Amino acid sequence: MAVVQWIEGKGRYTLPTETKYNGTMKDGMFHGKGTLYFPNRSKYEGIWDCGISKEGKYTFADGLEFKDKKWHYCDGYDRRFYTEICSGLKPAGISQLTNLDPPRTIPQGCYDCGDGFYNPNTRVVIDYKLRFLRNADDDEHEWILHTCRKGWDEITGYKPKQ
Question: Which of 6, 20, 125, 143 could join 28 in a cystine, given CB atoms 3.0 to 4.6 angstroms apart?
Answer without folding.
Answer: 6
